Amino acid sequence: MEWTSENMAANAALVRERIARACARAGRDPASVALVWVSKTKPAEAVRAAYGAGARDFGENRVQELVAKFSDPLPGVTRHLIGPLQSNKARKAVALADVIHTVASMDLVRRLDALAAEADRTLKILFQVNVSGEATKSGLSPAELPAFLAALPESGRLLYSGLMTIGPNTGNPEDARGPFRTLRALRDDVLGSDARFSRFVELSMGMTDDLEVAVEEGATLVRVGTALFGARDYGAANKER
């Protein structure tokens, strides 16, 4: 496939129109929703084409792909790690990611805090919640979340910024509405509850198939890959690794 900024811009216009229509239904400002371009499995030239089309938020599932595509940072880009983070990859994640969406372990919080201090970096982190209760999904349960958040240490390096979830993979976007609404209620319960949560505004939810429902239910970050970059070739990505 030929990656061009023109192609990327056309795809982005369609996605932004979907976001704008969902915002209109919900009485929201489209500027309140950030579009994260999920470039996982896509080559560096796809990232450069997207950047030329105006993309500034990029999401990767794997630390290895952050290293491969973003070791030389593009000006103005925010790098989102949206996949599971193993402790042994935390140092590289702290060096390259600006936002980590999938934190669900107190041990990982402590390690990220120490590594961020060592690297003299400040990171936004989101806490992953398995709102749908599916065994195949990672994250804290809604019942576990309040005690977990209450136990978080104060940090000068980690900005506790909100919550993330993945909607149920049923093929029906409406099935995500209840879980997304629950995530927003969980966020609202925490926002401003003490100084640690003064910036706890983010709701990372919604992908290509269910982004409208996510936006209607309050998403501030939507993670879109296929609608922007096309179908993923996992075989090619595996060969590259």
Name some characteristics of this structure.
single chain; 241 residues; alpha/beta; TIM Barrel; eight-stranded parallel β-sheet; globular
Structure characterization notes:
The protein is of the alpha/beta class and 241 residues long. It contains ten helices and eight strands. The protein has helices at residues 5-26, 44-52, 63-70, 90-96, 106-119, 145-150, 177-190, 211-216, 226-229, 234-240; strands spanning 34-38, 57-60, 78-81, 99-103, 123-128, 158-164, 202-204, 221-224. An eight-stranded parallel sheet has the order 7-6-5-4-3-2-1-8. Helix 1 (5-26) crosses helix 2 (44-52) and helix 4 (90-96) packs across helix 5 (106-119). The longest helix has 22 residues, at 5-26.
Task: Give a short synopsis of this structure.
The chain has helices at 5-26, 44-52, 63-70, 90-96, 106-119, 145-150, 177-190, 211-216, 226-229, 234-240; strands at 34-38, 57-60, 78-81, 99-103, 123-128, 158-164, 202-204, 221-224.
